[in-house]
Amino acid sequence: MATPPNRTARLMDVRQKVWLTPNMIRVTCAADWITTLEPGIEGAHFKLFLPAPDQSADAFADQLENGPRPAVRTYTIRHIRPTSGEIDIDFVDHGDAGPASAWARRCVPGDVAGFAGPGPVKIKDFHAATYVLAADMSALPVAAATLEAMPRDATGTAWLEITTPEDRQDIDAPKGIDIHWLVHPDPAQPATQSVEKIAAMPDLGDSVQTCIAGESGMIRILRDEIVNRRGVPKAEAYISGYWKIGLIEDEHQQAKRAGTAG
């Protein structure tokens, strides 16, 4: 039985930070309560609560408990190691413009953050004959986690958009998944390559599952392609907008609730 998400923010410490690629930062966080989480929840989302610059750990812990609510962003569990009480979180390096990227850039071992969740894993049961994946840098953690969770005999195609050729990552994907890295150097401009590549794919067959996530404009077009034109049942099609050009996360979430974003 899956553990229900804990909606109370819990404190965790930064254990390590590395730049995986020029535009992706991995922060490893640790806490005793992480040992109680289930293994195999890579790809699940959670709410990351962020301290203000120069805020002490004690002051942040008090704020988590008593308010006001700190800055919050949604992120993905890239790896979990319950036995050592660690999770890895991958951040796109946007500079200091956003609170999450700024925190990831400045954090050092011993710093703190808050965690609430996790939500559900995006694909719980792999049973398709063909898999189709697409992601931009924001959704690369969920795509990579999904690829690594697949049966080793899985077959399909993944279209992964990155900012520079050096942003390619090592992913332990099944040998039958063809991974295509597409360079999209300006995230402020709509991404079109995944849309074009998927639209040009031949018939996908009768047994298909998808994991597609990224900027909402791309997602809206791909949802129409996959569900409406290709006829993949909605239950088999994880397709989600993670952000929208020109909007911060709170604005994007409001637009999603209003049905005006992917």
TrEMBL record:
GO terms for molecular function: oxidoreductase activity. SUPFAM superfamilies: Riboflavin synthase domain-like. Gene3D superfamilies: Nucleotide-binding domain of ferredoxin-NADP reductase (FNR) module, Translation factors. Residues 4-125 form the FAD-binding FR-type domain. It holds the Pfam family SIP. Coiled coil: none annotated. InterPro entries: FAD-bd_FR_type, FNR_nucleotide-bd, Riboflavin_synthase-like_b-brl, SIP_FAD-bd, SIP_fam, SIP_rossman_dom. Belongs to the SIP oxidoreductase family. This is NADPH-dependent ferric siderophore reductase, contains FAD-binding and SIP domains. The lineage of its organism: Bacteria, Pseudomonadati, Pseudomonadota, Alphaproteobacteria, Rhodobacterales.
